[in-house]
Amino acid sequence: MHTLKIAASIAVLLVLIITAGIYTNHALLSSSKKLEAHIIKIEEASKSEKWASAKEQLDMANALWDNTEGAWSVLIDHIEIDNIKELFVRTEKYIETQNQSMTLAETAALKQCISNIPKKENFNIKNIF
């Protein structure tokens, strides 16, 4: 009987861990997709040299990042968060100076950094070992 309780407890813990991993991955993927959508709009606006629109999209992305950052800080390495913050700051400065090539370079780096987070934190065997 005692062995059955231990096995049931282990099974429940395993289910909780797997469920938490799936939820975490879904939350990271969902928020990264929202951020990427704004970054794509920033790229499009800067390609068209619509700097006011690019700044507006950046402000929306920053607001979304402010809401996302708290949850992500619990789930991912803080170095990644610092990198994203730095990319946002540099992107803002390049938009202010209307430097198209550097804005596009920074948005590409920002998009890459954000899209890699769910991949790196994905709950799978490759990431466990």
From TrEMBL:
Transmembrane segments: 6-24
InterPro entries: DUF4363
Superkingdom per UniProt: Bacteria
UniProt keywords, alphabetically: Membrane, Transmembrane, Transmembrane helix
Name of the featured protein: Uncharacterized protein DUF4363
Any Pfam family: DUF4363
Keyword check for Transmembrane: yes
